[in-house]
Amino acid sequence: xxxxxxxxxxxxxxxxxxxxxxxxxxxxxxxxxxxxxxxxxxxxxxxxxxxxxxxxxxxxxxxxxxxxxxxxxxxxxxxxxxxxxxxxxxxxxxxxxxxxxxxxxxxxxxxxxxxxxxxxxxxxxxxxxxxxxxxxxxxxxxxxxxxxxxxxxxxxxxxxxxxxxxxxxxxxxxxxxxxxxxxxxxxxxxxxxxxxxxxxxxxxxxxxxxxxxxxxxxxxxxxxxxxxxxxxxxxxxxxxxxxxxxxxxxxxxxxxxxxxxxxxxxxxxxxxxxxxxxxxxxxxxxxxxxxxxxxxxxxxxxxxxxxxxxxxxxxxxxxxxxxxxxxxxxxxxxxxxxxxxxxxxxxxxxxxxxxxxxxxxxxxxxxxxxxxxxxxxxxxxxxxxxxxxxxxxxxxxxxxxxxxxxxxxxxxxxxxxxxxxxxxxxxxxxxxxxxxxxxxxxxxxxxxxxxxxxxxxxxxxxxxxxxxxxxxxxxxxxxxxxxxxxxxxxxxxxxxxxxxxxxxxxxxxxxxxxxxxxxxxxxxxxxxxxxxxx
Length: 534
Ligand code: XMP
Prior knowledge:
Layout: E1 2-6, H1 12-21, E2 26-30, H2 35-42, E3 49-52, E4 77-80, H3 82-90, E5 94-96, E6 102-110, E7 123-124, E8 130-138, E9 141-144, E10 150-154, E11 162-165, E12 170-173, H4 185-196, H5 205-220, E13 224-229, H6 233-246, E14 250-256, H7 264-275, E15 279-284, H8 286-293, H9 299-324, E16 331-335, H10 340-352, H11 366-370, E17 373-375, H12 383-392, H13 397-400, H14 420-439, H15 449-452, E18 455-469, E19 472-485, E20 493-494, H16 499-512, E21 516-521
Helix pairs in contact: 5-6, 5-12, 6-12, 8-9, 14-16
The site of xanthosine-5'-monophosphate (XMP) has 15 residues, from loops.
């Protein structure tokens, strides 16, 4: 196993991800664990290497150090950015506060003589130097290497951009190999953990399940857990995992707000109650939600109403469960499908997000209000890892690879006031669009258009337009199709769907969904448009 000590960089978890991608087991722990803790962690003889992460701070602002034991275990250590600087300082080198910050793309001259960088380069200069394209973000730099170290990499502005003491297995780089902008980063981290540390690449998602199950059992003991199941990927995978760990100690509460996709509620029940035999309470609250939404057209207000009601309904169910007791003291844990990107987002939200473009449905504050402890078994995982885990847990791939669906559901896909009739029309139109996206394959890639798009859905426009059907004039509603491709949902391009697909969808919707007589396709990118229409 590999120990990653976290000095607080925003990308520490990416190091863990790269190590897991190399099929090596790793754990991330805060940098201030004690030396005794480190020795204990290594006591089973399985610890093969340590990685010291970067930090958002400077060595002059904080005095975070690696526990001394890290350098006493006789195993390889890799320092990244701040990790390099603290390694230099702790082993007798010097770090100087930088006057200029180096931030972003850089080209590093790599000295190929070290085991870490041997034969790893992006290009070679005319003089024959191997060069790496990397991503740097630092102010301070190492100005004097500790005794025993030799130079491994340099840039013009940072002469000591990499250093190594190969006898002891100590390596350090000023750039960030964990981010994808560092082209050879993955190769470099793989080389460190597999070749230099000598780990075996035998860790797979199934092992993660075992470890996670064990952890959940330890954390929960014989107490009870409730979880708000939405049908989305994260809460579904969390539910399946926790159910695997503690069975009937878990109760899922599935609040149907009446703004779900066609048959979605039944599918969720069928999977969790039917196939997994989990305890699921389905609360049909559609009348309550639609009632409170009547007459409300403003998107943010709709979001607030839906989010608020969701919390109220959930709390009421939790209270009922407690009252019923079932001979137990009721739930003491609230489980959530928080994943790693959510953790980063909420941590960094203060400085980054000056304006709220859309207030996302969130249930923050719920555990405190309910007096419950939090259980978040997916906190360390990225979305695609969560999906992989879901499949390994036996959830159907269609569920796990489903496009994201916003918490307020169709509530933000019906423009303006939400009405039940509108929702019914929209659900049917949307189901046709999704069905055809799944039917149509792209010849070149062999993939379906559902898999080729990141998010696709139908939007209900509460305007009427004139049409002609048979001999008669129609005066009916309009829907817009939206399909986008994006890697992070921060920016997105509209998808160039084949005309044949659009044609089929349009003709099916107009023929099969009475009440809609016009279909349009949204060709706006984000920015300046957003993915959802509200
Ligand atoms: P926008 O429309 O902001 O959407 O480009 C980006 C991503 O966020 C989703 N989204 C939401 N998710 N509650 C959610 O849980 C919301 O209120 C909400 N609004 C947008 C959207 O579906 C897309 O994936």
